Amino acid sequence: MRTGSQYLESLKDGREVVIDGKVVKDVTTHPAFEGVTRTVAGLYDHVNAHPEDLTFTSPKTGQPVALWHQIPRSRQDLVRRRKGIAKFTELSYGMIGRGPDCMGSFFAGFASSPEIFAKDNPEFGENVVRFHEKIRDEHLWCTVAIIPPQVDRSKTAHEIGDHIVAGVFEERDDGIVIRGAQMLATGSAISDYLHLSCVVPLRQGDEKHAISLAVPIGAPGLRLYSRRGYGAGQPSTFDYPLSTRFDETDSLAVFHDVFVPWEDVFVFKNIQTTLDQWHETAAHVLGNNQAQIRLVTKTKFLVGLGRKIAETNAIDKIPSVQWHLGELASWASLIEGMVLASEAEAVTKPNGVVIPHPRFLYGAIGLQYQLYPKIISLVRELAGGGVIQVPSSVHEYKNPDTAGDIKRYIKSPKLKSEEKVKLFKLAWDIIGSEFAGRHTQYEMFYIGAPFVSKSYAYRKYDFSDCVDLVHRCLEGYDMES
Question: What's the CATH class of domain 283-469?
Answer without folding.
Answer: mainly alpha
